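In response to a reviewer's request, we include the raw inputs and outputs for one of the modeled complexes. The two entities were modeled together in a single run.
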Amino acid sequence: MKRYIVLFVIVVALAPFVMGVGAHRLMLAQREALAAQPMRVFWEAWELLDTSLYGDLASPQQRTYGAIRGTLELLGDPYTIFLEPQSGEVERDRLAGAYGGVGVDVSRDGDGNVLLFPYDDSPAQAAGVLPHDRLIAVDAISVAQLSLDEIAVLMRGEVGTQVTLTLARPPTPPFDLLVTLGEIRIPSVVYRILDQDAHIGYLQVKSFTSNTAEETSAAIEALLSAGATRLVLDLRDNGGGLVSPALETADLFLDGGVLLYEERRDEETTFSGHAGGIAVDVPVVVLVNRSTASAAEIVAGALQTRERAILIGTPTFGKGSVQLIFGLSDGSSLHVTSAVWLLPNRRRVEPHGLSPDIEVVWDQQQQLEDPQLARAIRYLQTGE
Amino acid sequence: MENGLGKVVRVFIVLALILITGIVAFVAGFGTSMLAETSALFPSPVPTAAIDDATDTPAPSPTPYTPPEGGPETETFDLFWEVWHIVEQSFYGELPDMQTVTYGAIRGMLGTLDDQYTSFIEPQTAEIINEDATGSFQGIGAWVTLRDDGKLELTSIFESSPAERAGLQDGDVVIAVDGESIVGYGIYEAIALIRGPEGTDVVLLVEREEVDEPFDVTVTRAELQIPLVESEMLEGNVAYIRLREFSTTADTQTLEALEALLAQEPVGLILDLRNNPGGWLNQAVSVSDIFLDGGVVLIERSAEEEQFFRSEDGDAGESIPLVVLINGGSASASEIVAGAVQARERGVLIGELSFGKGSVQYPYRLSDGSELRVTVARWFTPADEAIHGEGLMPDIEVPIPEDIEADEDPQLERAVDFLLNGE
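The model returned the following structure tokens for the whole complex.
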């Protein structure tokens, strides 16, 4: 009897089970048929072009690429893009002609002197350039009236070639140093005590790479132990990079709390900082400009909206979204915007960027000295 | 009795158990199938890299998709589905519906053709075109043009139309319709918004040159005839016919106006095709035929064939001295007429270099009511000359000076002068 019941139950259960699976499959098939239906018009158009068009018809591959582009355009997002397979030639061109440099950071002091700060293990350091050396000329071209960008260009060239730097190191009279250009690994963080004020540490983050947070942390410690009581965090021309180090960097200045929200189509992630940190009490001014973008805007935006620091400079770029890159089967690739960032005050970074609290424009053609840094120093000295 | 009742209850319980088991099994089967769908049974794309380090990149949750079957070259096109699948899973923002995607894909495909005249027209727009073909429509009554800056200009207000009654003027620019900005819209999208049933109101946000701020104008729509032809008798007994475009009644309207003018025995006729963007090829041929005796009007050549379109003897306008006015806005069908008149030495062209569109589009109706206009051929003048990309050079070139007064028309004056003085 019991055996019968078991058998009975199995039979009674199995049939509906199979029916259930079948019903779901049928539903799926219908949904797909429905989804594919509108594309019928596309194939009608495709075939009409094949049969009727006067003139040259693009290849099926090009037409497919066109259809993809036309579809992505509908999304209205400039960062969601389709890239055709890169031709081998372009790739080779990109790899050829690696540029080299001497490996120094260049700045101007209040008297208009051009000062050099060599990177560790750089050709400049190997040739004997010391921090604070004054640059007079590059290959006999005087740098007195040149902008910092123009000076940087003079000290670049093909790897293995040489440049002559004319330096002054008072009281030593000017002298020449021959530097062989090498490939430069640009450190993501550069720092020094400012000549203008020995209590202000200057910290420049050029981009956010995997160890930027550690470098920044070490730099802050070094500046504080060298006597700095206030900091200038320079994020100008910082185009972004990786998000995690950017969040960790912001965390150094903030005592816990929200750093960033990342919003997807149907979920949101909150990134929060840790309590405490080495620079949570140090007065900070952040320098930003039009080229401050993406991860750099996260840091500047977190410090600004949490009222931890003011921003000085010009409005930032306004890139606040995350793209995933997919390799496609034919070698082309697809960049898809998968999330957007919201600052701690829930305002989007994109597309308007951040407005500085104090707007200071630097016209590099007209002004040799950095007015944004000068304004930051004044703010840190006077509190306004 | 007790036994009987107990039996009934037992049977009932057993039946209920069977039913419950069945339902549970059905749901379980359905659920299992759903689970299978979202598990690793279906491969899903995984990003190979991420810009700006998506710190918590989710594994995209797979949903199945099938490329449509039966289409040609579906294999090449699989890439499209690969992309769309990824976008569905990973894109941050709102996704367009499948119809919009289809239209976007078609437009993207047409973008690879290097032929601006092969175009896709959505059902709504196709409907407008078909409405126009009947010779009347329900709207405000104005000719419009889409300017280079993406704005819709009312180039000419119909006489005693709702637009005129509402105070709209030639040259007004419409930037919004019922609160919806139309800047950047296609011309038909914009027209579709402005048109609507007779008796209803539409609010246009209008920019006018001498007015600082855009202002609202409310217009009550009406049923309107499309006036393709304007005609009058000018000074010196010169007949004048202006043809706006070559839609389905262009030939009959032109002939009607011509016959009325001929009754007044004019010394000559000016056919004004300036800013006439064209229309139907058969209308170009039949309008040409009114003015031409027997002979070739145009030669059409597709990849496979060559076709001669001819005019016949015995029409009303074959002998009257003729001047055709053209300018940079005279295109396509206008150029067919002007080109035939010039090549056949039937009359003189006065004005400016014409637009230069020498291709023929065939409008294919697609299954959902949209339309694909495909360039199927090129046409050549009776002298076997191609005008595509070149335009027709008038016999007498009369440029319009930049600082011209609104009521001056040196091209028309030159045409009258030519007909009266023969030079």
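As requested, we also summarize the result in words. The longest helix of chain B spans residues 2-38. The domain at 137-225 of chain B is CATH 2.30.42.10 (Pdz3 Domain).
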